[in-house]
Amino acid sequence: MKKTVQMLIVLASAAALTAISGCSAIGSAPTLPSETIPDTISASSEAAKAASEETTGSNGGSRLNDILARGYIEVAMEPYFAPNEFIDPSRQGEEQYVGADVELARYIADKLGVECRIVPLEFSAVLTGVTEGKYDLAISALAYTPARAEAMEMSKGYRFDEDNANNFGLMIRSGDLDTIKSADDLTDKIVVCQSGSLQELFATEQIPACRELKRVSATTDGFLMVQEGKADAVVTEKKTAELFIAANAESSMVIVPDFSFVVDESTSGTRIGIPKGETALLNKINEIIDEVTASGIYDEWYEKYTEYAKTLGL
Question: What percentage of the chain reaches a pLDDT higher than 90?
Fold first, then answer.
């Protein structure tokens, strides 16, 4: 099963994703489904009616009222970031999308009394989709950045790492441990990061210099580029890197020890993206996030799907 999943990852990556340095494209656009894929949760007309009544008189409530009226909510996500959102290849249709963020999307839909429809996209399309109002929510391990906050509403944080200050670092080939010990050692190296991500912000603001910065659509593609010698280091969330290393011991990849990017307090917590100006929807989402964080259920989902991902070799 592990080899099968690894091959799926390679094929998905080779289909692949855009790697850019400056204005030079060295990859092709990803082929992810662009149509809405229904992921149905049983709807409750009474719950929808109650939620609708709560929004009466709220500012910016049109999208929330539209969701309740149409009976479903569209959630955009990039399904290649375990344990938040990923694909179980043994399942079919909407059931193949699993992860802590998928559970959160379904939980929100259930609370609103509507169906949940997952829209799988490459990451930059997730961001532009919610910015342009094509989708109701972006739930895809989003971190806060000032640029995102200008382009969309951002919810309260719903997951905070206990060691958030040391959560992001570099993954390299083990043979390069003697020469790459921090961001200062990347002057003559090729670095890769996910386009539009918090990791890209770290790469552009906290790496003093590098020979070339390449951007890809999915973090897993960055891992594979380093593994295959097409890049020297990938900027990554350490938890995701640990899962990759555990599932691919033969890859000889390691996280640079004793180095972490500096995390500003404003970037703390995973967020949900909402179209700009939709304050009633934002307020409702924040209420649900308060429930999720107070109960600790998201952390339970996160741990559950961390183990789940390991069983799939992710």
Answer: 65
Residue 84 confidence class, pLDDT cut points 50, 70, 90: very high
pTM: 0.66
Residue, of 99 and 240, whose pLDDT is higher: 99
Indicate whether 234 and 132 sit together in one domain. Answer: no
Q: How many domains does the chain have?
A: 2
Instruction: State how far the Cα of 216 lies from the Cα of 18, in Å rounded to an integer.
Output: 5
Are 144 and 198 in the same domain?
A: no
Which CATH number belongs to the domain containing residue 245 in this structure?
3.40.190.10
pLDDT band, residue 10 (cuts 50/70/90): very low
